[in-house]
Amino acid sequence: MKTRRIAACAVAALAVVTLQAQEADPVDETPAVTTTVEERIVVTADRLEKSPREVGSSVTVITAEEIELKRKSSVAELLRSVPGVEVVRGGGPGQVTSVFIRGGNSSHTLVLLDGVRVNGPTTGAFDFANLAADQVERIEVVRGPQSTLYGSEAVAGVISIFSKAGAEGLRFSGLAEAGELGTTRFRAGVSGGRDRFDYAVTVSDEQTDGVSSASKRAGNREQDPYENLTATARLGFGFSDEGEVNLSLRYFDSEVANDGFDFLLGPVDDLNRIQTRDGLTASLTVREQFGPRWRQSFVLGWNDEELAGIDPDDTFSNFTVENRSFEITSQSDVSLAENDVLTLGFAYDEREGGSVGNFDEKVDILSAFVQNVWSWEDRFHLTAGARHDDHSHFGGETTYRLSTTWSLGSGTRLHGTYGTGFKAPTLNDLFFPFFSNPDLKPETSESYDFGVEQSWGEDRWSLDVTWFDTDFEDLIAFSFVTFTPQNTAEATSSGLEVTFEYRPGPSFHLAGSHTINDTEDRATGLQLARRPENRSTLDLYFRPHPRLSGSASLIVASDRIDSDGSEMDDYERLDLSLSYRLREGVEPYLRVENLLDDEYEEVRGFTSPGSVVVVGLGLKY
Questions:
Q1: Residue 360 β-bridge partners
Q2: Closest residue by Cα to residue 149 from 382, 346, 429, 318
Q3: Over the stretch 277-311, which tens digit does the pLDDT of each residue have?
Q4: How do beta strands 157-163 and 109-113 pair?
Q5: CA–CA distance, 303 with 312 (Å, rounded to integer)
Q6: How many domains, in total, are found in the chain?
Protein backbone atom coordinates (compact mmCIF):
# COMPACT_ATOMS: atom_id res chain seq x y z
CA MET A 1 0.00 0.00 0.00
CA LYS A 2 2.82 2.38 0.84
CA THR A 3 4.51 1.86 -2.52
CA ARG A 4 1.21 2.39 -4.33
CA ARG A 5 0.57 5.60 -2.41
CA ILE A 6 4.00 6.94 -3.28
CA ALA A 7 3.62 5.94 -6.89
CA ALA A 8 0.26 7.75 -7.00
CA CYS A 9 1.88 10.91 -5.59
CA ALA A 10 4.63 10.71 -8.18
CA VAL A 11 2.18 10.19 -11.05
CA ALA A 12 0.06 13.12 -9.87
CA ALA A 13 3.15 15.31 -9.56
CA LEU A 14 4.32 14.37 -13.03
CA ALA A 15 0.87 15.14 -14.39
CA VAL A 16 1.15 18.61 -12.94
CA VAL A 17 4.55 18.98 -14.59
CA THR A 18 3.11 17.99 -17.96
CA LEU A 19 0.16 20.35 -17.62
CA GLN A 20 2.33 23.27 -16.60
CA ALA A 21 4.80 22.53 -19.37
CA GLN A 22 1.98 22.82 -21.92
CA GLU A 23 1.05 26.21 -20.50
CA ALA A 24 4.65 27.36 -20.15
CA ASP A 25 5.80 30.75 -21.29
CA PRO A 26 8.40 30.91 -24.09
CA VAL A 27 11.75 29.46 -23.03
CA ASP A 28 13.48 32.84 -23.16
CA GLU A 29 11.10 34.10 -20.45
CA THR A 30 11.87 31.19 -18.14
CA PRO A 31 14.67 31.87 -15.61
CA ALA A 32 17.71 29.58 -15.90
CA VAL A 33 17.38 26.45 -13.78
CA THR A 34 21.07 26.32 -12.73
CA THR A 35 24.27 28.26 -13.38
CA THR A 36 26.56 27.21 -16.20
CA VAL A 37 30.15 26.04 -15.74
CA GLU A 38 31.48 29.40 -16.88
CA GLU A 39 29.35 31.20 -14.27
CA ARG A 40 30.65 29.09 -11.37
CA ILE A 41 33.58 30.03 -9.17
CA VAL A 42 36.00 27.64 -7.42
CA VAL A 43 38.03 28.85 -4.44
CA THR A 44 39.15 25.64 -2.71
CA ALA A 45 41.31 24.06 -5.45
CA ASP A 46 44.03 26.77 -5.53
CA ARG A 47 42.88 29.05 -2.66
CA LEU A 48 42.13 31.62 -5.38
CA GLU A 49 38.88 32.55 -7.12
CA LYS A 50 38.95 30.79 -10.48
CA SER A 51 36.72 29.20 -13.07
CA PRO A 52 36.52 25.37 -12.79
CA ARG A 53 38.12 25.16 -16.23
CA GLU A 54 41.17 27.06 -15.00
CA VAL A 55 42.12 24.45 -12.38
CA GLY A 56 43.73 21.09 -13.01
CA SER A 57 42.00 19.28 -10.15
CA SER A 58 38.69 17.46 -10.56
CA VAL A 59 36.12 19.76 -8.96
CA THR A 60 32.36 19.59 -8.45
CA VAL A 61 30.44 22.70 -7.39
CA ILE A 62 26.96 22.28 -5.88
CA THR A 63 25.34 25.66 -6.48
CA ALA A 64 22.68 27.55 -4.53
CA GLU A 65 20.17 26.83 -7.30
CA GLU A 66 20.81 23.09 -7.14
CA ILE A 67 20.53 23.09 -3.34
CA GLU A 68 17.16 24.86 -3.52
CA LEU A 69 15.79 22.62 -6.28
CA LYS A 70 16.69 19.40 -4.43
CA ARG A 71 15.10 20.54 -1.14
CA LYS A 72 17.40 18.29 0.93
CA SER A 73 17.66 18.81 4.68
CA SER A 74 21.32 17.78 5.08
CA VAL A 75 24.65 18.33 3.35
CA ALA A 76 25.27 14.56 3.26
CA GLU A 77 22.22 14.04 1.05
CA LEU A 78 23.49 16.72 -1.35
CA LEU A 79 26.87 14.96 -1.63
CA ARG A 80 25.41 11.66 -2.81
CA SER A 81 25.39 12.79 -6.45
CA VAL A 82 29.03 13.91 -6.56
CA PRO A 83 31.30 11.75 -8.80
CA GLY A 84 33.86 9.65 -6.92
CA VAL A 85 32.08 10.22 -3.58
CA GLU A 86 30.33 7.54 -1.51
CA VAL A 87 28.11 8.55 1.43
CA VAL A 88 27.58 5.82 4.06
CA ARG A 89 25.09 6.15 6.90
CA GLY A 90 24.66 3.47 9.55
CA GLY A 91 20.88 3.55 9.83
CA GLY A 92 18.29 6.34 9.68
CA PRO A 93 18.61 10.12 10.07
CA GLY A 94 21.10 11.24 12.72
CA GLN A 95 23.18 8.07 12.69
CA VAL A 96 26.93 8.16 11.99
CA THR A 97 27.48 9.35 8.40
CA SER A 98 30.83 8.97 6.64
CA VAL A 99 32.07 10.19 3.26
CA PHE A 100 34.69 8.42 1.13
CA ILE A 101 36.41 10.13 -1.83
CA ARG A 102 38.17 8.04 -4.49
CA GLY A 103 38.64 5.08 -2.19
CA GLY A 104 40.28 6.95 0.68
CA ASN A 105 39.25 6.46 4.30
CA SER A 106 36.67 8.81 5.79
CA SER A 107 39.51 10.46 7.74
CA HIS A 108 41.26 11.17 4.41
CA THR A 109 38.65 13.79 3.51
CA LEU A 110 39.14 17.26 4.96
CA VAL A 111 35.91 19.14 5.66
CA LEU A 112 35.93 22.94 5.81
CA LEU A 113 33.05 25.06 7.06
CA ASP A 114 33.55 28.68 5.96
CA GLY A 115 37.28 27.96 5.85
CA VAL A 116 37.48 26.22 9.24
CA ARG A 117 38.44 22.53 9.49
CA VAL A 118 35.82 20.56 11.41
CA ASN A 119 37.42 17.09 11.40
CA GLY A 120 37.54 15.75 14.96
CA PRO A 121 41.02 15.60 16.56
CA THR A 122 40.16 12.33 18.36
CA THR A 123 39.23 10.40 15.18
CA GLY A 124 40.52 12.54 12.31
CA ALA A 125 37.16 12.18 10.51
CA PHE A 126 34.02 14.29 10.29
CA ASP A 127 30.55 12.91 11.02
CA PHE A 128 28.08 14.48 8.56
CA ALA A 129 25.05 13.27 10.56
CA ASN A 130 24.17 16.70 11.98
CA LEU A 131 25.30 19.10 9.24
CA ALA A 132 22.06 20.73 8.04
CA ALA A 133 21.81 22.22 4.56
CA ASP A 134 20.10 25.35 5.91
CA GLN A 135 21.99 28.56 5.11
CA VAL A 136 24.44 26.76 2.76
CA GLU A 137 25.26 28.88 -0.31
CA ARG A 138 27.40 26.38 -2.19
CA ILE A 139 29.59 23.32 -1.72
CA GLU A 140 32.91 22.67 -3.45
CA VAL A 141 34.27 19.12 -3.66
CA VAL A 142 37.90 18.85 -4.80
CA ARG A 143 39.03 15.30 -5.53
CA GLY A 144 42.68 14.36 -5.22
CA PRO A 145 45.43 15.28 -2.71
CA GLN A 146 45.26 18.80 -1.25
CA SER A 147 47.68 18.55 1.69
CA THR A 148 49.96 21.11 0.02
CA LEU A 149 47.35 23.80 0.66
CA TYR A 150 45.49 22.38 3.66
CA GLY A 151 47.82 20.00 5.51
CA SER A 152 46.67 16.92 7.41
CA GLU A 153 43.51 14.97 6.41
CA ALA A 154 43.40 16.44 2.86
CA VAL A 155 44.64 13.13 1.44
CA ALA A 156 41.82 12.06 -0.89
CA GLY A 157 40.08 15.41 -1.24
CA VAL A 158 38.48 18.45 0.37
CA ILE A 159 34.81 19.29 0.91
CA SER A 160 34.36 23.02 1.48
CA ILE A 161 30.98 24.41 2.58
CA PHE A 162 30.13 28.11 2.30
CA SER A 163 27.35 29.94 4.15
CA LYS A 164 24.98 32.43 2.57
CA ALA A 165 25.71 36.12 2.97
CA GLY A 166 23.15 38.89 3.28
CA ALA A 167 22.33 41.34 0.49
CA GLU A 168 21.03 44.90 0.18
CA GLY A 169 17.65 45.49 1.84
CA LEU A 170 15.69 43.40 4.34
CA ARG A 171 14.51 39.85 3.65
CA PHE A 172 12.63 37.23 5.66
CA SER A 173 12.48 33.52 4.85
CA GLY A 174 10.74 30.54 6.34
CA LEU A 175 10.09 26.87 5.75
CA ALA A 176 7.75 24.28 7.22
CA GLU A 177 7.50 20.65 6.16
CA ALA A 178 6.02 17.39 7.40
CA GLY A 179 6.02 13.85 6.12
CA GLU A 180 6.27 10.14 6.78
CA LEU A 181 8.25 8.71 9.72
CA GLY A 182 6.90 11.60 11.78
CA THR A 183 9.22 13.99 9.96
CA THR A 184 8.93 17.73 10.63
CA ARG A 185 11.26 20.61 9.83
CA PHE A 186 10.92 24.32 10.49
CA ARG A 187 13.24 27.13 9.52
CA ALA A 188 13.15 30.91 9.98
CA GLY A 189 15.70 33.42 8.78
CA VAL A 190 16.35 37.10 8.31
CA SER A 191 19.00 38.70 6.12
CA GLY A 192 19.87 42.07 4.71
CA GLY A 193 22.46 44.73 4.28
CA ARG A 194 23.13 48.40 3.95
CA ASP A 195 26.14 50.30 2.66
CA ARG A 196 29.12 48.13 3.65
CA PHE A 197 27.33 45.92 6.17
CA ASP A 198 25.45 42.65 5.54
CA TYR A 199 24.00 39.93 7.77
CA ALA A 200 22.14 36.61 7.61
CA VAL A 201 20.70 34.69 10.58
CA THR A 202 18.86 31.36 10.42
CA VAL A 203 17.37 28.96 12.97
CA SER A 204 16.07 25.52 12.01
CA ASP A 205 14.60 22.56 13.87
CA GLU A 206 14.30 19.04 12.45
CA GLN A 207 12.65 16.03 14.08
CA THR A 208 11.79 12.53 12.93
CA ASP A 209 10.62 9.29 14.53
CA GLY A 210 13.17 7.55 12.31
CA VAL A 211 13.50 3.84 11.67
CA SER A 212 15.18 1.04 13.56
CA SER A 213 18.91 1.44 12.94
CA ALA A 214 19.36 -2.29 13.56
CA SER A 215 18.41 -4.16 10.43
CA LYS A 216 14.73 -4.91 9.82
CA ARG A 217 15.88 -8.07 8.05
CA ALA A 218 16.85 -9.44 11.48
CA GLY A 219 13.45 -8.61 12.96
CA ASN A 220 14.31 -5.28 14.62
CA ARG A 221 11.40 -2.83 14.62
CA GLU A 222 11.92 -0.22 17.38
CA GLN A 223 12.17 3.28 15.87
CA ASP A 224 15.18 5.48 16.65
CA PRO A 225 14.03 9.12 16.74
CA TYR A 226 16.30 12.04 15.88
CA GLU A 227 16.15 15.79 16.43
CA ASN A 228 18.50 18.59 15.50
CA LEU A 229 18.41 22.29 16.32
CA THR A 230 20.79 24.41 14.20
CA ALA A 231 21.44 28.14 14.35
CA THR A 232 23.70 30.02 11.93
CA ALA A 233 24.82 33.62 11.57
CA ARG A 234 27.03 35.40 9.06
CA LEU A 235 28.04 39.05 9.39
CA GLY A 236 30.06 41.03 6.86
CA PHE A 237 31.59 44.49 6.95
CA GLY A 238 33.60 46.37 4.36
CA PHE A 239 36.11 48.57 6.14
CA SER A 240 37.62 50.02 2.95
CA ASP A 241 37.10 49.96 -0.81
CA GLU A 242 39.06 46.68 -1.04
CA GLY A 243 38.88 45.37 2.54
CA GLU A 244 36.29 43.22 4.30
CA VAL A 245 35.69 41.31 7.52
CA ASN A 246 33.36 38.29 7.72
CA LEU A 247 32.23 36.49 10.86
CA SER A 248 30.50 33.12 10.54
CA LEU A 249 28.92 31.12 13.38
CA ARG A 250 27.18 27.74 13.35
CA TYR A 251 25.77 26.00 16.43
CA PHE A 252 23.90 22.70 16.60
CA ASP A 253 22.36 20.56 19.34
CA SER A 254 21.20 17.06 18.44
CA GLU A 255 19.93 13.86 20.01
CA VAL A 256 19.47 10.46 18.39
CA ALA A 257 18.46 7.04 19.71
CA ASN A 258 20.92 4.22 19.07
CA ASP A 259 20.65 0.47 18.92
CA GLY A 260 22.87 -2.08 20.65
CA PHE A 261 25.15 -4.82 19.38
CA ASP A 262 25.17 -8.53 20.07
CA PHE A 263 28.32 -10.48 19.10
CA LEU A 264 26.16 -13.35 17.83
CA LEU A 265 23.21 -11.50 16.33
CA GLY A 266 24.87 -8.23 15.31
CA PRO A 267 22.99 -4.92 15.72
CA VAL A 268 19.85 -5.31 17.87
CA ASP A 269 17.15 -2.98 19.17
CA ASP A 270 17.92 -1.05 22.37
CA LEU A 271 15.01 0.80 23.97
CA ASN A 272 16.86 3.44 25.98
CA ARG A 273 20.27 4.12 24.44
CA ILE A 274 20.80 7.64 23.08
CA GLN A 275 23.61 9.89 21.92
CA THR A 276 23.71 13.66 22.21
CA ARG A 277 26.02 15.88 20.23
CA ASP A 278 26.43 19.65 20.23
CA GLY A 279 29.00 21.90 18.67
CA LEU A 280 30.00 25.43 17.77
CA THR A 281 32.05 26.47 14.75
CA ALA A 282 33.25 30.05 14.33
CA SER A 283 35.37 31.69 11.66
CA LEU A 284 36.66 35.23 11.31
CA THR A 285 38.06 36.20 7.92
CA VAL A 286 39.85 39.46 7.14
CA ARG A 287 40.85 40.41 3.57
CA GLU A 288 42.51 43.51 2.20
CA GLN A 289 43.89 44.52 -1.20
CA PHE A 290 47.09 46.54 -0.96
CA GLY A 291 47.54 48.14 -4.35
CA PRO A 292 47.14 46.23 -7.62
CA ARG A 293 49.55 43.39 -6.79
CA TRP A 294 49.13 42.28 -3.18
CA ARG A 295 46.10 40.73 -1.50
CA GLN A 296 46.33 39.68 2.15
CA SER A 297 43.93 37.50 4.14
CA PHE A 298 43.74 36.10 7.66
CA VAL A 299 41.41 33.32 8.84
CA LEU A 300 40.83 32.52 12.51
CA GLY A 301 38.82 29.40 13.19
CA TRP A 302 37.41 27.67 16.24
CA ASN A 303 35.56 24.35 16.44
CA ASP A 304 34.24 22.86 19.69
CA GLU A 305 32.14 19.69 19.84
CA GLU A 306 30.97 17.26 22.52
CA LEU A 307 29.54 13.76 21.97
CA ALA A 308 27.90 11.90 24.86
CA GLY A 309 26.50 8.37 25.04
CA ILE A 310 23.77 7.59 27.59
CA ASP A 311 22.44 4.14 28.50
CA PRO A 312 21.19 3.33 32.03
CA ASP A 313 21.53 -0.42 31.38
CA ASP A 314 25.07 -0.54 30.01
CA THR A 315 28.00 1.12 31.76
CA PHE A 316 30.26 0.84 28.72
CA SER A 317 27.80 2.81 26.60
CA ASN A 318 28.08 5.86 28.84
CA PHE A 319 30.85 8.16 27.65
CA THR A 320 31.74 11.74 26.78
CA VAL A 321 34.12 12.64 23.95
CA GLU A 322 35.35 16.21 23.52
CA ASN A 323 36.99 17.76 20.44
CA ARG A 324 38.39 21.27 20.28
CA SER A 325 40.54 22.95 17.68
CA PHE A 326 41.84 26.44 17.01
CA GLU A 327 43.62 27.63 13.88
CA ILE A 328 44.95 30.78 12.28
CA THR A 329 46.04 31.04 8.66
CA SER A 330 47.80 33.92 6.93
CA GLN A 331 47.76 34.01 3.12
CA SER A 332 49.51 36.51 0.85
CA ASP A 333 48.72 36.52 -2.88
CA VAL A 334 51.25 38.51 -4.87
CA SER A 335 50.82 39.20 -8.60
CA LEU A 336 54.31 38.88 -10.04
CA ALA A 337 52.88 39.62 -13.48
CA GLU A 338 49.47 39.81 -15.10
CA ASN A 339 49.52 36.03 -15.61
CA ASP A 340 51.57 34.96 -12.58
CA VAL A 341 50.35 34.78 -8.94
CA LEU A 342 52.57 33.72 -6.03
CA THR A 343 50.86 32.56 -2.83
CA LEU A 344 52.70 32.45 0.50
CA GLY A 345 51.02 31.10 3.60
CA PHE A 346 51.58 30.30 7.25
CA ALA A 347 49.26 28.38 9.58
CA TYR A 348 49.04 27.37 13.22
CA ASP A 349 46.68 24.54 14.17
CA GLU A 350 46.03 23.52 17.80
CA ARG A 351 44.10 20.29 18.38
CA GLU A 352 42.80 19.21 21.76
CA GLY A 353 40.40 16.57 22.99
CA GLY A 354 39.88 13.21 24.55
CA SER A 355 37.55 10.90 26.37
CA VAL A 356 36.39 12.15 29.75
CA GLY A 357 37.83 9.94 32.49
CA ASN A 358 40.43 8.44 30.13
CA PHE A 359 42.60 11.18 28.67
CA ASP A 360 42.68 14.81 27.56
CA GLU A 361 45.65 15.76 25.36
CA LYS A 362 46.77 18.43 22.92
CA VAL A 363 49.00 18.65 19.86
CA ASP A 364 49.83 21.54 17.55
CA ILE A 365 50.97 21.89 13.94
CA LEU A 366 52.97 24.81 12.55
CA SER A 367 52.88 25.05 8.75
CA ALA A 368 54.27 27.05 5.84
CA PHE A 369 53.21 26.70 2.20
CA VAL A 370 54.03 28.26 -1.15
CA GLN A 371 52.24 28.06 -4.49
CA ASN A 372 52.70 29.62 -7.91
CA VAL A 373 49.93 29.86 -10.53
CA TRP A 374 51.06 30.74 -14.05
CA SER A 375 48.84 31.17 -17.10
CA TRP A 376 49.43 31.59 -20.82
CA GLU A 377 46.85 33.39 -22.99
CA ASP A 378 44.03 32.11 -20.78
CA ARG A 379 44.53 28.67 -22.37
CA PHE A 380 47.30 27.04 -20.33
CA HIS A 381 47.36 27.10 -16.52
CA LEU A 382 50.14 25.59 -14.40
CA THR A 383 50.08 25.37 -10.60
CA ALA A 384 52.99 24.17 -8.45
CA GLY A 385 53.17 24.17 -4.66
CA ALA A 386 54.87 22.73 -1.60
CA ARG A 387 54.19 22.70 2.14
CA HIS A 388 55.96 21.72 5.33
CA ASP A 389 54.04 20.83 8.50
CA ASP A 390 55.83 20.60 11.85
CA HIS A 391 53.83 18.38 14.23
CA SER A 392 54.58 18.75 17.94
CA HIS A 393 54.54 14.99 18.46
CA PHE A 394 55.97 13.14 15.44
CA GLY A 395 57.98 15.88 13.71
CA GLY A 396 57.83 17.22 10.17
CA GLU A 397 56.11 16.20 6.93
CA THR A 398 56.60 17.80 3.50
CA THR A 399 54.04 17.54 0.70
CA TYR A 400 53.92 18.91 -2.84
CA ARG A 401 51.48 19.21 -5.73
CA LEU A 402 51.57 19.99 -9.44
CA SER A 403 48.45 20.59 -11.54
CA THR A 404 47.79 21.80 -15.06
CA THR A 405 44.99 22.43 -17.51
CA TRP A 406 45.31 23.15 -21.23
CA SER A 407 42.54 24.29 -23.56
CA LEU A 408 43.40 23.03 -27.04
CA GLY A 409 40.54 24.74 -28.86
CA SER A 410 37.36 23.31 -30.40
CA GLY A 411 36.05 22.63 -26.88
CA THR A 412 38.87 20.26 -25.88
CA ARG A 413 40.59 20.60 -22.51
CA LEU A 414 43.30 18.46 -20.90
CA HIS A 415 43.74 18.51 -17.12
CA GLY A 416 45.76 16.62 -14.54
CA THR A 417 47.38 16.65 -11.10
CA TYR A 418 50.21 14.92 -9.28
CA GLY A 419 50.73 15.26 -5.56
CA THR A 420 51.32 13.80 -2.13
CA GLY A 421 49.24 13.90 1.03
CA PHE A 422 49.40 13.00 4.71
CA LYS A 423 47.21 12.48 7.75
CA ALA A 424 48.58 12.93 11.25
CA PRO A 425 47.88 10.24 13.89
CA THR A 426 44.75 11.10 15.83
CA LEU A 427 44.62 11.83 19.55
CA ASN A 428 43.02 8.41 20.06
CA ASP A 429 45.92 6.78 18.17
CA LEU A 430 48.53 8.57 20.25
CA PHE A 431 47.06 8.79 23.75
CA PHE A 432 44.11 6.47 24.48
CA PRO A 433 45.14 4.52 27.62
CA PHE A 434 46.44 0.97 26.96
CA PHE A 435 45.38 1.06 23.28
CA SER A 436 47.60 3.77 21.78
CA ASN A 437 51.06 4.12 20.28
CA PRO A 438 53.08 7.34 20.80
CA ASP A 439 55.60 6.26 18.13
CA LEU A 440 53.17 6.38 15.21
CA LYS A 441 54.14 8.09 11.96
CA PRO A 442 51.68 9.95 9.71
CA GLU A 443 49.76 8.14 7.00
CA THR A 444 50.93 9.19 3.52
CA SER A 445 49.76 9.03 -0.07
CA GLU A 446 50.98 9.60 -3.61
CA SER A 447 48.37 10.35 -6.28
CA TYR A 448 47.91 11.41 -9.87
CA ASP A 449 45.03 11.89 -12.24
CA PHE A 450 44.66 12.81 -15.89
CA GLY A 451 41.53 13.76 -17.79
CA VAL A 452 40.14 14.96 -21.10
CA GLU A 453 37.09 17.20 -21.31
CA GLN A 454 35.18 17.87 -24.53
CA SER A 455 32.31 20.28 -25.01
CA TRP A 456 30.05 20.83 -28.00
CA GLY A 457 27.35 23.21 -29.17
CA GLU A 458 28.38 26.28 -27.16
CA ASP A 459 28.64 24.20 -23.98
CA ARG A 460 25.23 22.57 -24.37
CA TRP A 461 27.03 19.19 -24.18
CA SER A 462 30.15 18.33 -22.19
CA LEU A 463 31.93 15.07 -21.42
CA ASP A 464 34.88 14.50 -19.09
CA VAL A 465 36.86 11.26 -18.67
CA THR A 466 39.43 11.19 -15.84
CA TRP A 467 41.75 8.40 -14.72
CA PHE A 468 43.01 8.49 -11.11
CA ASP A 469 45.48 6.42 -9.11
CA THR A 470 46.50 6.61 -5.44
CA ASP A 471 48.92 4.64 -3.26
CA PHE A 472 48.32 4.80 0.50
CA GLU A 473 51.23 3.89 2.77
CA ASP A 474 51.88 3.68 6.52
CA LEU A 475 48.15 3.44 7.17
CA ILE A 476 47.36 3.09 10.84
CA ALA A 477 45.68 -0.21 11.71
CA PHE A 478 44.98 -1.92 15.02
CA SER A 479 47.31 -4.85 15.70
CA PHE A 480 45.83 -7.83 17.54
CA VAL A 481 49.39 -8.91 18.39
CA THR A 482 50.36 -5.77 20.31
CA PHE A 483 46.79 -4.51 20.90
CA THR A 484 47.92 -1.08 19.77
CA PRO A 485 47.68 0.81 16.46
CA GLN A 486 50.62 0.37 14.07
CA ASN A 487 51.76 1.87 10.72
CA THR A 488 51.41 -1.48 8.95
CA ALA A 489 48.60 -1.16 6.40
CA GLU A 490 48.90 -0.26 2.73
CA ALA A 491 46.22 0.18 0.08
CA THR A 492 45.71 1.24 -3.51
CA SER A 493 42.83 2.94 -5.25
CA SER A 494 42.53 3.56 -8.97
CA GLY A 495 39.73 4.07 -11.39
CA LEU A 496 37.86 6.09 -13.94
CA GLU A 497 35.42 8.98 -13.50
CA VAL A 498 33.15 9.75 -16.43
CA THR A 499 30.94 12.84 -16.12
CA PHE A 500 28.63 14.55 -18.58
CA GLU A 501 26.27 17.52 -18.75
CA TYR A 502 23.50 18.38 -21.18
CA ARG A 503 21.93 21.82 -21.13
CA PRO A 504 19.76 22.43 -24.22
CA GLY A 505 18.26 25.59 -22.74
CA PRO A 506 17.88 27.55 -19.51
CA SER A 507 14.96 25.43 -18.28
CA PHE A 508 16.60 22.01 -18.46
CA HIS A 509 19.87 20.63 -17.06
CA LEU A 510 20.95 16.99 -17.04
CA ALA A 511 24.15 15.87 -15.29
CA GLY A 512 25.43 12.34 -14.80
CA SER A 513 28.49 10.33 -13.84
CA HIS A 514 29.86 6.82 -13.61
CA THR A 515 32.79 5.97 -11.34
CA ILE A 516 34.78 2.76 -11.56
CA ASN A 517 36.86 2.42 -8.40
CA ASP A 518 39.24 -0.53 -8.02
CA THR A 519 40.54 -0.60 -4.44
CA GLU A 520 42.76 -3.13 -2.67
CA ASP A 521 43.93 -3.75 0.86
CA ARG A 522 47.45 -5.03 0.15
CA ALA A 523 47.51 -7.18 3.29
CA THR A 524 44.38 -9.17 2.38
CA GLY A 525 43.98 -8.60 -1.36
CA LEU A 526 40.34 -7.60 -0.76
CA GLN A 527 38.72 -4.40 -1.96
CA LEU A 528 38.26 -1.68 0.65
CA ALA A 529 35.05 -1.87 2.67
CA ARG A 530 31.96 0.16 1.74
CA ARG A 531 33.55 1.62 -1.38
CA PRO A 532 31.59 0.34 -4.39
CA GLU A 533 33.49 -0.72 -7.47
CA ASN A 534 30.79 0.82 -9.67
CA ARG A 535 28.73 3.89 -8.90
CA SER A 536 26.45 5.88 -11.20
CA THR A 537 24.55 9.13 -10.65
CA LEU A 538 22.04 11.08 -12.71
CA ASP A 539 20.65 14.51 -11.80
CA LEU A 540 17.85 16.24 -13.68
CA TYR A 541 16.90 19.86 -13.00
CA PHE A 542 13.93 21.38 -14.80
CA ARG A 543 11.83 24.55 -14.86
CA PRO A 544 9.28 24.19 -17.68
CA HIS A 545 7.32 27.19 -16.42
CA PRO A 546 8.41 30.25 -14.39
CA ARG A 547 6.21 28.99 -11.53
CA LEU A 548 7.15 25.30 -11.68
CA SER A 549 10.53 23.68 -10.96
CA GLY A 550 11.93 20.43 -9.71
CA SER A 551 14.68 17.84 -9.70
CA ALA A 552 15.16 14.10 -9.89
CA SER A 553 18.24 12.20 -8.69
CA LEU A 554 19.19 8.59 -9.35
CA ILE A 555 22.05 6.78 -7.58
CA VAL A 556 23.12 3.21 -8.40
CA ALA A 557 25.90 1.44 -6.44
CA SER A 558 27.16 -2.09 -6.99
CA ASP A 559 29.99 -4.49 -6.14
CA ARG A 560 30.51 -3.63 -2.47
CA ILE A 561 31.83 -5.53 0.55
CA ASP A 562 31.61 -4.73 4.25
CA SER A 563 34.44 -4.59 6.78
CA ASP A 564 34.20 -8.36 7.43
CA GLY A 565 34.70 -9.10 3.72
CA SER A 566 31.10 -10.19 3.13
CA GLU A 567 29.41 -9.11 -0.09
CA MET A 568 26.73 -6.43 0.13
CA ASP A 569 23.63 -5.97 -2.00
CA ASP A 570 23.61 -3.55 -4.90
CA TYR A 571 21.15 -0.70 -4.51
CA GLU A 572 19.32 1.96 -6.50
CA ARG A 573 17.86 5.12 -5.04
CA LEU A 574 15.60 7.60 -6.86
CA ASP A 575 14.68 10.94 -5.27
CA LEU A 576 12.19 13.50 -6.61
CA SER A 577 11.28 17.08 -5.69
CA LEU A 578 8.68 19.44 -7.18
CA SER A 579 7.99 23.09 -6.31
CA TYR A 580 5.21 25.41 -7.50
CA ARG A 581 5.30 29.17 -6.89
CA LEU A 582 1.77 30.24 -6.02
CA ARG A 583 2.83 33.88 -5.93
CA GLU A 584 5.95 35.84 -5.20
CA GLY A 585 7.55 34.41 -2.06
CA VAL A 586 5.10 31.52 -1.52
CA GLU A 587 6.20 28.11 -2.79
CA PRO A 588 4.71 24.74 -1.73
CA TYR A 589 6.78 21.68 -2.59
CA LEU A 590 6.85 17.90 -2.57
CA ARG A 591 9.91 15.73 -1.86
CA VAL A 592 10.02 11.95 -2.23
CA GLU A 593 13.14 10.15 -1.03
CA ASN A 594 13.80 6.61 -2.28
CA LEU A 595 10.80 6.74 -4.60
CA LEU A 596 11.21 3.09 -5.62
CA ASP A 597 11.16 1.98 -1.95
CA ASP A 598 14.36 -0.03 -2.44
CA GLU A 599 15.48 -1.92 0.69
CA TYR A 600 19.24 -1.75 1.11
CA GLU A 601 21.99 -1.42 3.72
CA GLU A 602 24.90 1.00 3.48
CA VAL A 603 26.47 -0.70 6.51
CA ARG A 604 25.76 -4.40 7.04
CA GLY A 605 23.21 -4.94 9.78
CA PHE A 606 21.93 -1.36 9.73
CA THR A 607 18.69 -0.29 8.05
CA SER A 608 18.30 2.47 5.49
CA PRO A 609 14.85 4.09 5.40
CA GLY A 610 12.43 3.06 2.70
CA SER A 611 10.48 5.62 0.70
CA VAL A 612 9.62 8.84 2.53
CA VAL A 613 7.13 11.46 1.23
CA VAL A 614 7.44 15.02 2.57
CA VAL A 615 5.36 18.09 1.75
CA GLY A 616 6.42 21.60 2.65
CA LEU A 617 5.93 25.31 2.20
CA GLY A 618 8.73 27.79 1.56
CA LEU A 619 8.31 31.51 2.20
CA LYS A 620 10.45 34.45 1.08
CA TYR A 621 9.72 38.14 1.62
A1: 354
A2: 346
A3: 999 999 999 999 999 999 999 999 999 999 999 99
A4: parallel
A5: 30
A6: 1
